[in-house]
Amino acid sequence: MKFLLMTLISHSRDPISQEKKSPAARLADVIDTAVLAEELGFDGFAVGERHEDPFISSSPPVVLSNIAARTRDIGLFTAVTTLSLLDPVRAFEDYSTLDNLSAGRLQLIIGKGNGTAQAELFHVTPEDQWDRNREGYELFRELWENDEVTWSGQFRPSLTKAKALPRPLQQRLRIWHGSATSKESVDLAAQYGDPIFSANVTNTIEPYAALIRHYRERWKFYGHRPEDALVGAGTAGFHIARTSQEAVAAYRFSFEARLAAQRSAGMPVVFDTVEDLVERSSALIGSPEQVIDKVGRYYEQFGHEVIHLSADADGVTPLQQRRSLELFQSEVAPVLRERIPSRPLTEHHVSIEVLV
Known about the structure:
- It is built from twelve helices and 13 strands.
- Helix 3 links the parallel strand 4 (81-82) and strand 5 (106-111).
- By secondary structure, the chain is an alpha/beta fold.
């Protein structure tokens, strides 16, 4: 199994200290965490894309470029790139540049997105976001794999023998399709032979397991070998300590702050106590043994090879977060790597020495 740390770069008051850092300080924390992730042996670091409070992750390629300059080997992911909001040509230019700067360490997780900011900032609505996502993906893929593109679509001006630069380092970029509930998203992934990344955050296991089963069915329908399907999955929370009691006590502040925010925003609440979250969700909160057991139970349903864990320290101290990450890498990751086979995350990484 492979392991990513992931952040949406939330920017709010810490549940314990009530401190709200400046955007500059918060972004610096993200870069430092990515450097730590590489030092500890994580396989990848993922930055989400959001365009509304309480997040400041509106520009993943900029953040990932900074991480690329501070690291050498760790994979660089988006989680997710909301292609429904972006001009595919501009997105190609940004990510092709990042691909070159990072020596081919880039992978995208794309999604159609959601949230009120889509309509307010980009005039993208729930009615057209899926069509925009598909069109953006198909044009982005054409631009990545072809030196010259002639194209026409619904949502941006047509292209005639267009050359988008710089040309990427990876001839074919691995693009994961992130989805919580969208059959359209996983069908598009299956059609093009791409992997999927299940959100696996806000509900119990069954709706996510059903969507993954649908993906595998559509994968076979499009003529791909069943064993070539590739699945990743998120987690609803993350904190490990020596005992489950210690882990839950440390995570309680973070959970209660998130629960209060959900209720204030009128969002539906599925897990109403931290104990319920630990019991019925994908959250990895507990002792190393408990975390190993839960990942194994989810693997039985998903057959996934990659998971992402929260990179944020909301509700725990920086020291608690570091100890949790160290404990995961020393006592959890080795067991899961041995028990759950996984393919390389990328076949395209080029050493910096070769490029220089």
